[in-house]
Amino acid sequence: MNSIFDPEVPAGAFDEFLLGALPAARTHRAWTPEDGPLPALYLSHGAPPLFDDAPWMRQLLAWSLALPKPRSILIVSAHWEAAPLSLSASAAHTPLVYDFGGFARRYYEMTYPTPDAGQLARRVAAAMPDTEPVHRHRSRGLDHGAWVPLKVMYPLGDVPVLQLSIPTHDPDRLLDIGRRLRALRAEGVLVIGSGFMTHGLPHLTREIITQGVIPGWSTDFDAWAADALARGDVETLAAYRSAAPGMPFAHPTVDHYIPLFVTLGAADDPGRPVTTTIDGYMMGLSKRSFQVA
């Protein structure tokens, strides 16, 4: 029996998805100032198997279509930790980073040629303090934490996309970066933190992968995070290392969790309860994704 990890046709589900997604994307209403600020998102991004997961692709597309089409997208991905704070290349047709291994050739041949994001790069750089200058790369492309979900959410590839690095693991500093990005939302910029609500890859067993068993460390961490998010309890979320059940199995490294703080910092009120848009599990990992206004 084929699965999203061993599809008969690699990304065949994505090809079928596009039959309906492209017509919907062509009629997607563009953001206008009258819409007010766009929300900020935290999404669990998947990897190449997302292109073989039809239900998850439909969820992501429905989420994007429920919002006005942004003028541009600024995304912080778990897969780019770099200091000083850095921006990806902003020229049109920014290259992709195929930062994964062991998959079919099809996934390494995918493209996502987005428009020039130079204006957004200048705006982001200007929003940061003089004490934290922003490094602008000329060639660093979009990694799979950015292009994989965005290729599903905005399949036309007609929205400028810029990626911002994660320069620290400190929640307070990440919240501050988010605060400095907050004004961009009122300019039609969609601010996204891209990670995975649980990401205990080293602790996945054959039973979890092949039989769909959800490990307790994943459900416990997800329930804890969902409760704190529903209460707008940023302090508890920031104390995840000591307060969250399921640690350190849910996050042996913290890179997939901490983009959440950039998202919360970009909210008008980081302590306001969030709206969960996607939940459930993939390969035992929580897909919980949410938006804040």
UniProtKB/TrEMBL annotation:
Highest taxon of source: Bacteria
Keyword annotations from UniProtKB, A to Z: Metal-binding, Oxidoreductase, Zinc
Pfam entry (one): LigB
Tell whether Methyltransferase is among the UniProt keywords. Answer: no
Recorded hits in InterPro entries, A to Z, give: Extradiol_dOase_DODA, Xdiol_dOase_suB
Q: What protein name is recorded for this chain?
A: Extradiol ring-cleavage dioxygenase class III enzyme subunit B domain-containing protein
MF-aspect GO terms? ferrous iron binding; oxidoreductase activity, acting on single donors with incorporation of molecular oxygen, incorporation of two atoms of oxygen; zinc ion binding
* Known cofactor(s): Zn(2+)
**Ranges for the Extradiol ring-cleavage dioxygenase class III enzyme subunit B domain?**
59-269
By sequence similarity, the record places it as follows: Belongs to the DODA-type extradiol aromatic ring-opening dioxygenase family.
